[in-house]
Please model this.
Amino acid sequence: MTPPDILCIGSVLWDIIGRTDGALRARGDVAGRITRIPGGVAMNIAMTLARFGLKPAVLTAIGADPEGDDLIAATDALGVSTAYVLRTDLPTDRYMAIEDQSGLIAAIADAHSLEAAGEAILTPLSDGRLGRAQEPWRGPIALDGNLTAELLEQIAASPLFAEADLRIAPASPGKAERLIPVMRHARATLYVNRQEAGLITGRDADSALDAAQALVEAGAARALVTDGAQPAADCARGLPPLSRPARAVQARRVTGAGDTFMAAHLFAETRGADRLQALTRAQDAAAAYVAFEDFHP
Model:
């Protein structure tokens, strides 16, 4: 089997998203569209990388139920390998969100099957299919915060990840603090928004640049911070800080924008872009995503 270009570890589930073009108030009932598409942080990143021309594989848990069968088929059809997926007897995970013209109104993430699977999803990294402790995976890994805090702590200290180019994203602000141990990995790059950065550092920063610098001061080797339509930033130990403004667009969706930013940034760096070039391409990709525009890296 040809090895993948990158591993995306974490949630692969069904995104069920209801959108309305108007304003939605509490307990409102309005017309809109409801879609069901493959989603989850790891899946969103993998789909974007596949669209850019890479060969990603996901390490996750998917139920051995009809919804899981459909999700496996849809994932493979998008150019994302499911060869290393753990199939379980638990239900396939789901995420449900409601968005209006202002953005995300509310969301519920049901990733209980992934959490229950635990370290079993990492077996291909130790049994020789993708690596072993003496010969660990040396390529990029996109890791999402839907994993349990205990598993993230294991990953931070595991020899299986010692040589990886580790790229980390939170699943939601409520899970951002789980990332503190793994963000201190010597080869880790952390991708968060300004709110998530504040939850990790305990500081309310006025900008993405201030937030990224605070994360490095808190022990992150490198941190990229987004701030919606405001400038994004890249800070790393021993390197000058960078900031790049966002392109002004009319936002028509928000769910998945951060994952698109991360995937575009990672792709740019795998193709030799310098830090400023990669940050610029990531900002442009995120702007195109929220505006439903085409983007070519």
